[in-house]
Amino acid sequence: MSRIRLLPETVASQVAAGEVVERPASVVKELVENSIDAGARKIDIFVRRGGISYMRVIDDGCGMDRDDALLSLERHATSKIRSVADLEAVGTLGFRGEALPSIASVSRFRLTSRESNAVAGTEIIVNGGKIDVVRDAGEAPGTQVEVRSLFYNVPARRKFLRSENTESRNIEHQLHLQAIGHSQIAFTFARDDRLVFQLPTSTTLADRIRDLYGNQLLDQLLPLNDSSSTQIRISGLIGQAGLSRQTRAQQLVFVNGRAIESPLITAAVREGYHTALMKGQYPVTFLFLELDPGAVDVNVHPAKREVRFRDPNAIREAIVLSIQETLASSRADWQEKFRAPLPTVGGTTSMSSSEVKGGSPPCELPELEREFALRGQRSIEGSPIGGTTGVHPELVERVSSQTFAAPDEFGGRDRARPSTQPQFQIIGVLNKLYVLMENADGLVLVDQHAAHERILFEELRRRMEEQGVPSQKLLIAQTFELPPRDADWIEQNMSILQKMGIGIENFGPNTFKIDSLPGFLNVTDGAQLMRKVIDDLKSASDRSSPLRLGEDMIASTVCRHAVKANDPLRYLEVEKLIQDLLDCELPYCCPHGRPTMIQISNAELEKKFGRKV
Ligand code: ADP
Ligand code: MG
Predict the structure, then answer these.
(1) Ligand 1, pocket residues at CB < 6 Å
(2) What is the pTM of this model?
(3) CA–CA distances in Å: residue 428 to residues 374, 448, 570
(4) Longest dimension (CA), the chain
């Protein structure tokens, strides 16, 4: 007796549904994608009880006639591709022809659809995959899908659903993705009969972000430098250095309009933010990649959440570069704020002279400076900078003492100074830590410790790149073996490692010998260090500085050598610190991604004091 049987159509659909319809949010995703593919300009979404009891998606797209509406519920029925060749150049979000039959097989399902020029529309009711009703319906042009009692006939699936709140949040996140990815379309979302958002047809991504997340976030985003190559176009907005989140929820990535999750891109983004991001934190990105449809395979995940790139390296390099350039170029904006002339002493820009009258006259600068200088007599040489905690004393001492040499004694660096000196006025130091200053834009607070870390870090990195790192002999040389792939990597990067101060050489097949390590590193176990280095660098980009490894080492050591809170600095030293900071490549965060300065604009102050609404 034959044991193999063809599955009945409804069972096959339910099995397939397992892949496509994981939870209510996946239903919403598929339905909204269909609406987008149908050319909708307006999509309304209503859900109740986390979508488990009710979901409804209404669009004003092209609609379907009765035959198509019936066909759309068949498995493998799609209007979007006709051949395997079409798969190479999919321009629509859907193409698998699986969503509608899958959803209909695990719910109580109702579809109404009408083409714009048709006299009447069609209504189809399906229960658990079985078509119960097909009739004419007088709906508005477009398509409406209602899904009730999801998984009512698949109890095993229902058990995997989370709380209504969690499922609602998943739906909302999914809708954010769609709304950000398609800012030209109007979206309305109501949950349990309460309006959550109503997004107008907008033209720009920035408008859409403002509508969804507010002005405060938008103000902290930078438009991505368009480093388009022939292969890839990158656009969108990303968080400025120092802006981070606890989760990846606001790390949005779109490939050809499709929201995707990609470990490759996540790693590239992280790499692009290197030293501009706190450990364990995630950047905010609204990253849009456009590439030739043939260069990306979208048919690797049943829910089309992942993609495969034909040339992953090129994609990674392009993203890293674009982010690095964007973060670095935003420095110009900052510097602009320190370039404009300060408001003259005796009256600020926004105060009329009558308002100033009667108040005490503002403090003259020289007076303030004198007073300031008296407060901190301790010179910087007495501070812990240049201590000997494991870092090569020569390297760090040279750098940190230069950092604070008075401007005219300063000779070690040949970096071009900006022609116009930054304009700022130091008001004082709060809590022996925060430097208060005024610039053209308003009040600036600088964390002197974080600022010094950034300055030391960039200076050490520059030296390392120019001169290499002095290394220190180990008492006993160490040998160690590595898996073949890692051994390969070491062999290819041998010369870079040596420049980094790591004395490493071949010592038999897949075996290496280390006899010296960078002097400024406080490690003794060379083999362990190498394993960690390989792990770190395998995920790093080829394009970033080959001395990227050194960056991590330096970042972890500068902290101990930077001026601390409670180290009183003299006026000149503070001024020098600020000047040096403004000269840095990434002045607004320390090498660990914490902010170095906070600007409170005049406009913000005026608002807070009720001078302006
Ligand atoms: P796919 O989107 O992969 O083609 P679906 O099962 O999601 O598969 O949909 C099947 C077909 O039904 C689509 O190809 C499309 O022609 C039609 N369709 C689905 N939803 C809509 C809609 N909202 N408006 C117009 N046509 C739709
Ligand atoms: Mg679809």
Answers:
(1) 30, 34-35, 38, 59, 61-64, 72, 77-80, 94-100, 143
(2) 0.75
(3) 12, 12, 10
(4) 106
